[in-house]
Design goal:
Elements (H helix, E strand, L loop, with lengths): L2 E6 L3 H4 L6 H16 L4 E6 L9 H5 L16 H10 L3 E4 L5 H12 L5 E7 L1 H15 L5 E9 L3 H13 L3 E2 L1
Parallel strand pairs: 1-2, 1-4, 2-3, 4-5, 5-6
Helix pairs in contact: 5-6, 6-7
Length: 175
């Protein structure tokens, strides 16, 4: 059974924009290589906010406008967008850390036999990767869920490591 590759939030604002980090910049080539090597289905996600972001609970706790729909920071890294288009891979826009819509979509696809495992890559390990991995583990309890640590970056190296330990404790395989 095929593995679905889920590329989480590899957007300009998280790589070298408003919330960019050297760690996210460093994993970009590994993520690109992983997508190129993957032979199964691929889905991308995009953190997506609007002009009212600062009035949301997230915006009040993280008052840094980022990933505003239609802006350059919201777009996927150019090399990854080219791969997405070449593969005609879907992109799920998510208004918060984890996507319930994505979990429902993957539940239907798993029930239809479209894949038998999920591998997550992307940013931020400690926020959106963690949130989506846990949602998928809950929605797909018998589907192996894994996170490719070499293709993820957290807000800090320490929070990346903490998130990996938390996911491993929840029976998510760390590659």
């Amino acid at each position: 059974m095929e593995t679905l590759l889920l590329v989480v939030d590899m957007q300009n604002d998280f790589i070298d924009g408003a919330l960019g980090t050297p760690e996210a910049q460093a994993v970009l080539p590994a993520v690109e290589a992983r997508i190129r090597a993957h032979r199964g289905p691929v889905i991308f996600t995009r953190d997506t906010h609007d002009a009212g972001y600062l009035n949301t609970q997230e915006g009040k706790r993280l008052p840094v406008p980022h990933c505003v729909a239609g802006t350059p920071g919201w777009e996927l890294a150019p090399a990854l967008e080219a791969l997405r288009q070449a593969r005609q891979a879907p992109c799920v826009d998510k208004p918060t850390f984890g996507s319930i819509e994505l979990a429902h979509r993957l539940r239907r696809a798993a029930d239809a036999g479209e894949f038998g495992a999920v591998e997550l890559v992307g940013v931020c390990t400690d926020i959106c990767v963690l949130s989506n991995a846990l949602l998928l583990k809950a929605a797909l309890p018998e589907i192996p869920i894994s996170v490719n640590a070499a293709c993820c970056a957290g807000v800090t190296p320490e929070s990346h490591a903490t998130a990996l330990r938390a996911m491993a404790a929840c029976q998510i395989d760390i590659l």
